[in-house]
Amino acid sequence: MCKIIFFIVCFSVFNICRAQNKEVTKLVDQFIDTLEAHSFMRSRVDFDKMRQETKLNVRNINSTDSLMPTFKKIVAGLNDHHSSVHRVKGTTDELALIKKYASTTYAQLGMPGPNFQHRLIEDKYAYINVPGVDLEHRMYIDTLQKQLLELDGKQPKAWIIDLTENEGGSCAPMIIPFHALIDTTQTFCYFDGTLDKDGKEVLVDKFQIPQNGLYIDNDVEAKYFKFDTVQVLPLVNNKIPVIILISGITGSSGEIAACHFLGQKNVTVIGTKSAGLTSGNELYYVDKGYSINLMTALLHNRKGKSYDVGERINPDITITYPENIQSRKEQHQYILKNKSIFINKALEFLTSGGI
């Protein structure tokens, strides 16, 4: 009798494990399907090999809760420098995930808010720090607009826009407030890997500058983060020199914000090379709370250049690190402790030009 009970228990456990492993295999397929359909690297990756190797590696995994290390390894294998995988339990689709992020504040997560700073330097240069943004997008836009209007009222002789500590996030809130400082109707766009019949790059998602200053975004994310409609107030001092400060920290949307100004005659970029995340991401929900922030296209600036995978933005005027600063971590620490070096270099440039 005991042997029969033992057999039944073992058989039941085996069936449960097999069913769980099917769930694991199904989720792996969904994950790789998403990459194969949308990744910029889709023409450079052998997804059949990736799928085969991954299924072999997860053959002893019986819970989808244990797949994060596997998914991180898969994403790292894309070698696109800019994709990442996340998991937010309790979300069932992309909309639920967006609502979750949109309703969360920095305070709720116990995180400090963005490092907003603005001031008039030497009574004539308008300095504004533009930090990264992950949450509370409308607050971010409103804060930058208020700071810009305050500085504009002091009749500055130049703008110094500091992106040196901007690691990215969402690019639209970083860009929209600076509407009045842009001298064209279209700044940057993306190359998603598609070529036309003549072999030329097909450019998509061209960022348009509305002449009336009213930004309308029909994207679901913009709706829930409350920047689907933003009326930008004009700045009077919009023809003066603009200095963009960048560093090795400046990445992703921070680099897009810098690219927004590139090629404009009154703009000078000062700093170190940027982080090299000059590409666009899209959020894709997979299942079981897993989502991918997937690199889908390369950044293309108004001068006609498409950045390569991992390519950095080069400043017009370069700041070099001390010889003893080598690693990326050391560079980041140096930048955060020595922001005055970047600002002083901007002041030196402006003064030398008689501004």
From TrEMBL:
A Pfam family that the UniProt record links to this protein: Peptidase_S41
Domain Tail specific protease: 83-320
Protein name per UniProt: Tail specific protease domain-containing protein
Annotated organism of origin: Sphingobacterium multivorum
UniProt lineage: Bacteria, Pseudomonadati, Bacteroidota, Sphingobacteriia, Sphingobacteriales
